[in-house]
Specification:
Strand content: under 5%
Distance between the termini: 34 Å
GO molecular function, one term: acetate:proton symporter activity
Pfam families: Gpr1_Fun34_YaaH
Radius of gyration: 15 Å
Order of helices and strands: HHH
Protein name: Acetate transporter
Membrane topology: Multi-pass membrane protein
Family: Belongs to the acetate uptake transporter (AceTr) (TC 2.A.96) family.
Largest sheet: none
Number of helices: 3
Mean pLDDT: 88
Shape: elongated
């Protein structure tokens, strides 16, 4: 019998990545911060990479819906 390992859900990580990217975009839309290379880099790292990592972790948990939502 294979061991049963309980893993934490990576969904909060993916949602945090989406939320941080949305906040950065809204700060630019409200003309609070200019769209610079630092804002673009933070959006790509926090948003893109974090959601991709969450999708890979969802695949490891055999959750195809979460994997598709974060990696699509």
């Amino acid at each position: 019998m294979a061991p049963n390992h309980a893993n934490a859900s990576p969904a909060p990580l993916g949602l945090m990545g989406f939320g941080m990217t949305t906040v950065l975009l809204n700060l630019h839309n409200a003309q609070i911060v200019p769209m610079g290379s630092a804002i673009m880099a933070m959006g790509l790292i926090f948003g893109g990479m974090t959601q991709f990592i969450a999708g890979v972790l969802e695949y490891g948990n055999r959750n195809t819906f979460g994997m598709t939502a974060f990696m699509a």
